[in-house]
What does this fold into?
Amino acid sequence: MKRTSVKVLCLVLSLVFLSAGLALAAKPKKPAPEMDVGQMLMASFDLMEKGKFDKALKMLEQVLQKDPGNPLGLNNMAAIMVKQKKLDKADTLLNQALPRAKGYMVQVNRVCQIGGICLAFKPVTAGTGNQELAPLIMMNIDMVKQHMSAEPLPGKGLR
It folds into this structure.
């Protein structure tokens, strides 16, 4: 009887030590590296090109949490609003972006049209920009306003 209890005790202790060893040996998961605003802008543009507008919008919301008023983030979010036919919201976002876009230099390496009227821009990751963002945003504001004025009023026909 005494011999059985010693065996059981040894077995229990070995299982405890084995569990502790496995717990210590397990590598803790590192959190995913946090993306900076530039990486998030590029990733959101890639999502837009793939037609994943909801995911791109969430990423752009994160950009604006990190950098409130980021003109490129606001511009690209406006492009998504155009896709969702929320032209008033797109116009508001573009007008919010305009003051910070003056002097904001970008080097645009790709442009996508959303809904045929609004342009989203993907910046390059390195180097300095060669184009000011403000005129590009003004162009988007003009396109959105033209499209808004051409839309029929509910129950009234064309404006």
